[in-house]
Amino acid sequence: MTDLLSTLQLVLKDGGYQCWLMPVDRRAGVSFEDDALLGFGYIFDDPQTLIERWQAQEAATLNRFASRLREANDKAWNIYSLFICAAPADEEQSRLIRQIEENLERTRKIAACGVGTVDEVITALLPILPLQYRPSLEQENYADRLRRRIADFAPEAADAALNEDVPAAEVAAMLGTR
């Protein structure tokens, strides 16, 4: 749990948030804040514990920090609760965890299970992280990729373009006929 909590804190800091560790009801957590929103996040041992304890954890945190939240003015309308678990959830648990995110009482919520790596934490937190472009390029044969791309606009030239026995002028003619 500590490693995932550290990862959560690191991802939030990289996203531009100020972060503080804060235990509530004997559960370690992290609070975070930027100019627009604030929130808190907790790590759970397993999906069932997350499902059973998220409401109590949210209520305990809101009660403990009620006076500070009242001082937050406009940010008090933009509070997030993060509930994360490294263990994967089964189908029924996944359905219940999605329902947590749909519950907009008190705070906005992000709930995710099966989260263990930095990339998985980033993916879970995308709703509150700055926009980012993360291309996912698969390892592939570049000749095959080029052939497919050429086939999109000149199917008859796709094989000829990469064939060393076909003169360049002939390939150019094939490409120019479109």
- Overall structural class, as computed from helix and strand content, comes to alpha/beta
**Helical segment count:** 8
What separation lies between the terminal Cα atoms? 59 Å
Number of strand segments: 5
Shape: elongated
* Portion in helices: 40-55%
Task: Explain what the structure shows.
This protein is α/β, with parallel strands linked by helices and 178 residues long. The chain is built from 8 helices and 5 strands. It has a 5-stranded mixed β-sheet with strand order 1-2-3-4-5, with helices on both faces. The termini are far apart.
List keywords for this structure.
178 residues; 46% helix; alpha/beta
Brief write-up:
The chain is an alpha/beta fold and 178 residues long. It is built from 8 helices and 5 strands, in the order αβββααβαβαααα. It has a 5-stranded mixed sheet, with helices on both faces.
